Prior knowledge:
By secondary structure, this protein is of the alpha/beta class.
Amino acid sequence: MAEKFDAIIIGTGQAGPSMAQRMTREGMKVAIIERKLFGGTCVNVGCIPTKALVASARAAHMARRGADFGVVIDGAITVDMQQVKARKDAIVRQSNEGVTNWLKTMDNLTVHEGHGRLESANTVSVNGTVLEAERIILNVGGRALVPEMPGIHDIPYFTNSNMMDVDFLPEHLIVIGGSYIGLEFAQMYRRFGSRVTVVQRGSRLVPREDEDVSDSIREIMESSGVEIQLNAECTAFEKRGDRIAVTSNCPDGANDIVGSHVLLAVGREPNTDDLGLDKAGVQTDKRGFITVDDQLATNVPGIWAIGDANGRGAFTHTSYNDYEILAANMFDNDPRRVSDRITAYGLFIDPPLGRVGMTENEVRKSGRKALIGKMMMSRVGRAKERSETQGFMKVLIDAETKKILGGSILGIGGDEIIHSLLDIMYADTPYTVIQRAMHIHPTVTELIPTMLGDLQPLE
């Protein structure tokens, strides 16, 4: 006999606990299922632990730069990787325990620890028990992609998940993948003291970005001491004693890189292959992401998919926004939609990249008349004061409506400052609003009006 609930949530990543709280506050009897780590990727092996490691790496970097600021540090600067990991673990533990305790003490919520699988359009099995509900929310997240590459199963390798267990300094870390995750780890471990090589398929790093952004990111990485190997159209692996050889050009093997450890950072895939989607008739796309409409409903009435597994965003903030959209539609008579949100994300190298809206390439392809503004961070007083002048700011404007189409801020504080553009975009007001605003001096943001006062036609 199935145990009946008003709703079942599979997965406790970013969107799940908040959805459970909203449903229980609405008087619903809810079950939530977690097969492994409460809090999902972000809390345990994603944003929180990696940014804790980034902070430790920056501390080491700034200590080595002390003399640049007139600060003399006697003796060698060393990094205790066990202490670095212990600090990271303590931060993760606090977050994980916070989510766990929140869920396990929530009124009207039953927590099941195990692998939940759909048995039909309204039933889920977990640990031999069958749960039944008219509303099922799939919040199963994703994991690191491990593609079939020659020799990959013959070597040990790290992903972003098991890299969190490392409490030693790799002598030479080879990072496969020159995009967001890979670059964060690359700079981080170079600052810890490892030799680091990034192997990237294609002709440039972070190919989603404009060429000038990619080029500047490469300059930042190389100035950090990270080695870059581009155009790795075929990557193969081979064990050589206690070392690992990575061939980035399979036909002739001309670009062998021999290192001590390998980190795979080549993308993510959804946790949908063992979810029983076929039994419920839930459709997926060719990559396994659950197909949803603009309000996160699947093709099966009563089943929704939120978070990374729906392919509509790959970030913690998009997952949380999924919760907000679903809750607004379900309880508030507020027809919010996924298409209402503006693309926004960051690359948390140092200095960081903040990105919103369209890229320059996308604006050009759209064919619309546009204006562009650009300012090098070397012109920004705050950046000079901090001796961190790498990068630039760039904004794209619709020439007819005067609305901001997109922007990139690669430089000191870029991950925070980008929100000044994003908020204007959500307000659906012309760029002149921020151009005429009086900002505090000395800051980086105060130069955005200056940049907006010197717009040029996008040729």
